What we know:
Layout: H1 7-11, H2 19-33, H3 43-57, H4 60-69, E1 91-97, E2 100-106, H5 123-131, E3 145-150, H6 152-157, E4 159-165, E5 168-174, E6 183-185, E7 190-195, E8 202-204, E9 207-215, H7 216-221, E10 223-229, E11 232-238, E12 247-250, E13 266-273, H8 280-294
Parallel strand pairs: 3-7, 9-13
Antiparallel strand pairs: 1-2, 4-5, 6-7, 8-9, 10-11, 12-13
Helix pairs in contact: 2-3
GO cellular component, one term: cytoplasm
Domain J: 6-70
InterPro entries: DnaJ_C (IPR002939), DnaJ_domain (IPR001623), DnaJ_domain_CS (IPR018253), HSP40/DnaJ_pept-bd (IPR008971), J_dom_sf (IPR036869)
Amino acid sequence: MPTKRDYYDILGVPNHAGKEELKKAYRKKALEFHPDRNKASDAEEKFKEVNEAYEVLSNPQKRQTYDQFGHAAFEQGGGFPGGPFGGFGGQGQTQRAGPFSYTYYSGGGNPFQGFDFGGFSDPFEIFESFFGGASPFRREQPRPRYGLTIDFMESVKGTQKTVRIDGKQHTIKVPPGADDGTRIRFKDFDVSIDVKPDSTFRREGVDLVVNHEIPFTLATLGGTTEIPTVDGKLSLKIRPGTQPGSMVRLRDKGVPHLNGRGRGDQYVRLVVKVPEKLTNQQKQILQNFQSAAEQG
């Protein structure tokens, strides 16, 4: 049996790559090796490799298992539950349409549930995005889709927008926790959400990351500082001797789980600001401090 290539090598990313880097690499590779665009004899096999690699690495649980046990964790009979596409429920039957192989499932299971196809809702949508037409796998006509851009805070808190589509007025209710690519389904069309970036908060799933500057005197002596959160300002205690880049976790101060309970966390990275200019008196104080430190 040939040795499988490393999933990170297949996507061309380092093993510490984040969600967005994985998604970007997947889209690039899937487009490069898609058999309808790439006529090389090995394109179809590489396309399958790319999808398999992304399916595992985009799932935090599967990625952790892969990092620990490698491909053995997903081989049948290897002592682990199912392969990389296991766990869907129901019986799968492989079919072929043109150059593509695909599997449909019976038993009520959704074969693509929990799989992030690089920002697409399913692999058929990849086909439509790349080639501008309906996938040969679909039987029904593609649903009309419209984009709706909202502010970052609206995505966290939820919002309601009134839009006009095909001459008719519609009220779009965006649930709290919506993110880029979140799709809201109506009877006759879908709405895809596009979230504007925020200058203060960086989102990672349901968690938020904030870079917060503090003066070096506060980092050295300790004290308090006000931290921005999506719920307003929060007073945070700074310990004496806090080092630059220290991370503070604020539980349940992140983004609400979409259609679920609870919230993510907020992580505050403390950036220690060093003054560029000092008065003579300040320099003397620091020099005295340095001398005292050197003397023990």
